[in-house]
Amino acid sequence: MVTISEQQQAFPMKKKQGSSQNNKWEDHYTRKARKENFPARSVYKLQEIQEKYRFIKKGDRILDLGCSPGSWLQYTATLVGPQGRIVGIDKKKVTLQLPSHVTVHTGDIFSIQSVMGQEEMIHPYDIVLSDMAPDTTGNKFVDAARSLALCEAAFDIARQHLKVGGSFVCKIFQGEDFKQFTDSIQKEFHKSKIYKPKSCRKASKEIYIIGIDKKQEEICPDTASGHP
């Protein structure tokens, strides 16, 4: 198992100038990320999920939705190794230096067909990750609805591009439609989990839904035999 500390030399990153000690959001994980050369503390959320469920393996193909600023790309690049493949997409540009088996596209996941290359769309993925979050308004109902829209888009992409037996990880803000969405995940995967990493901020409403071992799509006998 590759640990965070083992990646410090592999992905050097310039330290940002200015004092972050005045940042009210700074905490142990923020300082740890800076020390270990990660652009965001969110890397430790994925690390906790990986250590608990061990779903990412050497050689895997991973699609990372909402990948900026790139911490998850950094972490997964070492997990899958050079024989693996990672494709990320985000509206915000990723400026990190990443290894050759990682490709990043700047664009909208709602227009993913026009953003990604043909090869990246044809071959299925072992893992689809989504750490996307909407711009928050302070209204928990609006924020939850916006989060759900992103999750549904990510889930739709996962259904189309995730191979049988693959896994899906999605961040969501809990709202009134939370159970309905988790039920949809349960129908698509043999195992589904709801997990809140310790590295999530205590006040945050975010939680992660994990689908493991995507089911084979059921084919109607009449359709399979060519009957309408």
Which descriptors would you attach to this protein?
228 residues; alpha/beta; Rossmann fold; 8 helices; 7 strands; 33% helix
Brief sketch in words of this structure:
The chain has 228 residues and is α/β, with parallel strands linked by helices. Helices cover 33% and strands 22% of the residues. The chain is built from 8 helices and 7 strands.
- End-to-end separation in angstroms reads 50 Å
Whole-number mean pLDDT: 88
Structural class: alpha/beta
- Just give the CATH class: Alpha Beta
Explain what this protein looks like in three dimensions.
The protein is α/β, with parallel strands linked by helices. It has one domain: Rossmann fold (3-Layer(aba) Sandwich), CATH 3.40.50.150. It has eight helices and seven strands, in the order ααβαββααβαβαββα. It has a seven-stranded mixed sheet with strand order 3-2-1-4-5-7-6, sandwiched between helices. Helix 6 runs parallel beside helix 7. About 5% of the residues have low confidence.
What topology does this entry show?
Elements: H1 28-35, H2 43-53, E1 61-65, H3 71-80, E2 85-90, E3 102-106, H4 112-115, H5 118-122, E4 125-130, H6 140-161, E5 162-173, H7 178-188, E6 189-195, E7 206-214, H8 221-224
Parallel strand pairs: 1-2, 1-4, 2-3, 4-5
Antiparallel strand pairs: 5-7, 6-7
Helix pairs in contact: 6-7
